[in-house]
Write a structure and sequence with these properties.
CATH architecture of the largest domain in chain B: 2-Layer Sandwich
Structural class of chain B: alpha+beta
Radius of gyration of chain B: 17 Å
Number of strands of chain B: 4
Number of domains of chain B: 2
Shape of chain A: elongated
Number of domains of chain A: 2
Largest sheet of chain A: 7 strands, mixed
CATH topology of the largest domain in chain B: 60s Ribosomal Protein L30, Chain: A
Oligomer: heterodimer
Strand order of the largest sheet of chain B: 1-4-2-3
Number of helices of chain A: 6
Distance between the termini of chain A: 29 Å
Strand content of chain A: 35-45%
Chain lengths: 438, 173
């Protein structure tokens, strides 16, 4: 029941007007109101003395994950009639119905030494049945946030039918200092801003990190040698090296292939910038575009067969798609303004981009044939979209105007709803959203 | 660079020279530039009054040229400045130059890096056309990463759409 309801809501949010023409759901769309689904989450029960704090923390993070999607709303515990004080006890569905809960999330937490065990069950209050089997997660205590994210991902998936995205990380550029003397460092954090860790020292300029498909490595542009070159960093060891590219004055704008074995990037030679691919195993370099115009910001389709990129061959920067082996590209952006930083969605159906028009910047999405362009944001400067692992949410950076202007990270649903700042301790730009962790 | 600005800089350079001149022959590095000593010889090659110094190049010759929005073609003023740069490079063969291309903040990071490369290359090509050996010239683009002026309107943007020729004695990377 819940699943069906929310799946409908999600479908509507994503497809917008097209879905609207298809059936009886039109009213919901024209109303334009998405009522978040109310859930009850009695604090997870500590099953062993000493587990109280972790139990409370995990309960809080699970709720924050769900609320943060904009699709759920938490019923305050003060409204509860039942307390559900023993994990696994029969659920008093009438009591939860009475407080308008549609989902009930119950859990238990045991900390013994460095080991953490989290159990949870999810109930559909309207139909009075448990949704899916109860689940038990075992891990180490210091990984409690990941355990909470895993619980929330499972709940989100069961209710929406979509993949989760909470147990994921973001690599980005941390910025400090004044606008004309910014210090930029690579940093990595959980998707919600927790567990931040710096990856570089800040003594040379770094730009636009990109996760590998498995999230174990990061490509980024570094000025360490004086000119832009592409570095490869191992996340676990923080070891890094410059990769060999085709010879040219500057190499930048790198991304991994889906198998993580190749890198597509921009190479500037003289006045010209084209797209190249380098095989990390063999160091064989392949030219993918050959035009006097600027070709940059390449991004592969999920099946690896095509590349979307940015080119100013028409006179202004626009989006194009070509075969992954190169060849004649076809233009897909035809709206007013300039388009850049295209990123193929993990589902393959959409391209996210930065659009600049009439003095404003937007993050938008369009279908891969260029149709159904939708702008999700607008500000003085919004740039560099990156997809959540499930293709439902986009993170980007927003830079404020003027001498004190500075960038921060934001996320937005691909419906354009639920715009939220991702809190970071410093200014932040160029996010790259990694995969769901195993 | 506008002729007026250039003239103003020249005046500034001359007046600076006039002010600092006594120090050059004064005691123990009174101007703080170091190396001088009791014998009164001051290593002041950074001083803009020395026509072979990088400071003179930057301030009197003019080390930067400006570009229109999205453009990398050189204006007549830019060509005049660059002709001066080329002449200076030919007169001072010990110097190498790194040409930095820059963009304003209206544009994406990736595109601005490529645009900065275009601008730096336009300067490089012009200097080569004026006889400067290509092996003394290197380019780098900073895109929108190194703004000179930090406001968010055209008065600042016009200063940031630039290519700067940075001369030094030494090796190119």
């Amino acid at each position: 029941m819940i699943k069906k309801l929310l799946a409908v809501v999600l479908a509507l949010m994503v497809s917008g007007p097209v879905m609207a023409q298809n059936g009886p759901l039109r009213l919901t769309i024209t109303d334009g109101v998405i009522e978040p689904l109310p859930f009850a989450l009695p604090s997870f029960q500590p099953e062993l003395a000493g587990s109280e704090q972790v139990a409370a923390d995990i309960s809080r993070v699970v709720a924050e994950d769900l609320i943060g999607t904009g699709l759920f709303r938490q019923i305050p515990p003060s409204a509860f009639i039942s307390q559900h004080s023993v994990f696994g006890q029969p659920v008093a569905f009438a009591d939860w119905r009475a407080v308008n809960a549609q989902a009930l999330i119950t859990g238990a937490v045991t900390v013994s030494g460095s080991q953490l065990v989290v159990k949870f069950r999810l109930y559909d209050i309207f139909t009075g049945v448990e949704m899916g089997d109860g689940l038990q997660l075992v891990g180490s205590t210091d990984g409690w946030r990941r355990m909470a994210h895993k619980v929330a991902d499972t709940i989100y998936s069961r209710i929406t039918g979509e993949g989760g995205y909470f147990d994921s990380r973001v690599v980005f550029v941390s910025e400090t200092g004044p606008k004309d003397n910014r210090v930029k460092r690579l940093a990595i954090m959980d998707y919600d801003g927790a567990n931040l860790q710096f990856l570089t020292e800040g003594n040379s300029l770094v730009l636009a990190p990109r996760f590998s498909p498995l999230g174990d490595r990061v490509l980024y542009t570094s000025f360490e040698s004086g000119v832009p070159r592409i570095n490869l960093l191992d996340v676990a060891t923080v070891g890094r090296r410059q990769i060999e590219t085709q010879a040219g004055e500057m190499a930048f704008s790198p991304r991994f292939s889906r198998d993580g074995q190749r890198v597509i990037y921009s190479l500037a030679t003289g006045a010209n910038t084209d797209i190249w691919m380098t095989d990390l195993g063999t160091n064989v370099h392949t030219r993918l575009t050959n035009a006097p115009s600027i070709e940059t910001a390449p991004s592969l389709s999920p099946d690896g067969s095509q590349i979307v990129f940015e080119s100013d061959r028409s006179g202004t920067p626009q989006l194009y798609i070509m075969s992954a082996s190169g060849g004649e590209p076809r233009r897909i952006s035809f709206g007013e303004g300039r388009y850049g930083t295209p990123v193929w969605s993990p589902r393959g159906d959409l391209v996210a981009f930065t659009k600049q028009n009439a003095g404003r910047f937007h993050i938008g999405v369009m279908r891969t044939d260029g149709s159904e362009e939708r702008l999700l944001t607008a500000s003085f400067l919004d740039e560099a979209p990156t997809w959540a692992p499930n293709g439902r949410v986009i993170m980007f950076f927003r830079e404020t105007q003027g001498a004190d202007g500075a960038p921060s990270l934001y996320s937005v649903d691909i419906s354009g709803r639920n715009l939220r700042q991702v809190i970071t301790p410093t200014f932040a730009s160029d996010p790259s959203w990694g995969p769901l962790q195993p | 660079m506008h002729t007026l600005t250039k003239a103003a800089l020249l005046l500034l350079a001359l007046s600076t020279a006039a002010c600092t001149r006594p120090d050059r022959f004064g005691g123990a590095g009174a101007d703080g530039t170091g190396m001088g000593g009791a014998n009164g010889i001051n290593s002041s090659s950074l001083d803009a009054s020395d026509p072979t110094s990088p400071a003179y190049f930057a301030q009197t010759i003019g080390d930067r040229v400006l570009f229109a929005v999205d453009q990398s073609n050189l204006s007549p003023e830019a060509m005049a400045t660059l002709s001066g740069q080329a002449q200076w490079m030919l007169n001072n063969p010990q110097y190498l130059a790194v040409i930095e291309g820059h963009a304003d903040e209206q544009g994406t990071r990736d595109y601005n890096l490529a645009l900065g490369a275009r601008r730096a290359n336009a300067v490089r090509e012009y200097l080569i056309s004026q006889g400067v050996p290509s092996n003394r010239l290197q380019t780098v683009s900073y895109g929108k990463e190194r703004p000179l002026a930090i406001c968010s309107d055209e008065t600042c943007y016009s200063q940031n759409r630039r290519a700067v020729t940075v001369v030094s004695v030494g090796q190119l990377g």
